[in-house]
Amino acid sequence: xxxxxxxxxxxxxxxxxxxxxxxxxxxxxxxxxxxxxxxxxxxxxxxxxxxxxxxxxxxxxxxxxxxxxxxxxxxxxxxxxxxxxxxxxxxxxxxxxxxxxxxxxxxxxxxxxxxxxxxxxxxxxxxxxxxxxxxxxxxxxxxxxxxxxxxxxxxxxxxxxxxxxxxxxxxxxxxxxxxxxxxxxxxxxxxxxxxxxxxxxxxxxxxxxxxxxxxxxxxxxxxxxxxxxxxxxxxxxxxxxxxxxxxxxxxxxxxxxxxxxxxxxxxxxxxxxxxxxxxxxxxxxxxxxxxxxxxxxxxxxxxxxxxxxxxxxxxxxxxxxxxxxxxxxxxxxxxxxxxxxxxxxxxxxxxxxxx
Length: 355
Ligand code: F6P
What we know:
- The protein has helices spanning 15-27, 29-34, 61-64, 90-99, 111-122, 147-168, 183-191, 206-214, 257-269, 289-307, 339-342, and strands at 2-7, 40-43, 57-59, 104-109, 127-131, 171-176, 196-198, 224-229, 241-246, 252-254, 273-277, 313-318, 321-326, 343-344, 349-350.
- The chain is α/β, with parallel strands linked by helices.
- It is elongated and about 70 Å long.
- The protein contains eleven helices and 15 strands.
- The chain folds into two domains: 2-146 and 287-330, Rossmann fold (3-Layer(aba) Sandwich), CATH 3.40.50; 148-283, Phosphofructokinase domain (Rossmann fold, 3-Layer(aba) Sandwich).
- A seven-stranded mixed sheet has the order 3-2-1-4-5-12-13, with helices on both faces. Strands 7-8-6-11 form a four-stranded parallel sheet, sandwiched between helices. The protein has a two-stranded antiparallel sheet with strand order 9-10.
- Strand 9 (241-246) and strand 10 (252-254) form a beta hairpin.
- Bound molecules: 6-O-phosphono-beta-D-fructofuranose.
C-alpha cells in the first residue's frame, strides 16, 4: 500500500517531525509483521502543487531520521488549491494520484489544505489529515502543529523588547500572526505579561487603548507592551492589508495594524511608541518540545488510522488523548476565542478566573 505525504499552507515547526513519524511508523519492520499490509511511503513536494506538477520523492527511515529536529518542511509547501474556481486542476490531481499508484494521502495542514483533502475524499480518494496551523484556529482538535513554537517566539521576542522599552520609557506594539483567531496574541501576550492584548474576535476602540495607557501615567511602570493580532479590527476600521493581492484560497495578505496603533498612540497621548511586526519569525526556527511530541503522536496515529481504514478523518488531540474527527467537520468553521470565557473586553487582556 503506497502512502503519499504532503504539507500544505504556511510552513511551521513540527511538519518535518510529522513526516518522519508517518514514515517511520509505516515502515517499522516490527509493526509490519503484525499488520496484514506492507507500506511504502513517498513525499509529495510543495503541497497540492506536487500532485498537479509531479516530482515525488521516496521516503525511508534513514532519509527522515533527523527531520524532527528541524523547522520548516523538507517536502516544501504551497498554497495551491486544485479546486480554485478560476483554475480548477482537480482532474489532473485525480489522474496523477492514479499514475503514481497512491493508495492513501496523508495531508498535513490547516483548514485550506484539509478542505482540499476532504473534497478529494468525496471523489473517492483515501485521505487522512494531520492538523497544522500556528493560528490555532482549526476546530476538532485541542492542538495543531506549530502553535507552541510560535508562542515561544512571541514570548522570547517580548522578553527582548522589555529591556529596550524599559530603558527608553516607550510603549511597544507587537504584531503577531492570527488572521481570524487571536490565540497567538492572547497566549503570547498572556505568557509574557503584556498590558494590552488586541484580538480579531473583539473589535477594539483606540480611545479605550489610550485610556488604559493613561491609567499608568505617573505610576512606577515606565513602559507598556501591547500585543495585537494581524487580523484585529477597530470599531471604525476594517482589516489592515499589505496589498490587494489574494491567494488561491481567496485570502488577502494582512499586516500594518501595529504601525497604525503606534502612530495613533503617539498622536493621542504623546507617549513615545515603537512597533515590531513579528511576521514570519513566528514560523521559523526549531520546533518546541511540545511540537516535537505532538508531531510524533500525530504521525503515529495517522498510520494507525490507515491500518484501521479510518479514511476521510483528521487525527485529533482531545482531552489529553489521541482520537480522530471527520475531516468535513473541521473545514467549515473556525476555532475562535470564546470572549466570555477567555477575554476581558474592558481591560483588553486575557481572563482565566474560575469564579
Ligand atoms: O496560515 C496562517 C498564517 O500564519 C496567517 O496568520 C498569516 O496571515 C499567513 O499565514 C501568512 O502567510 P504567508 O505570508 O506565508 O502566505
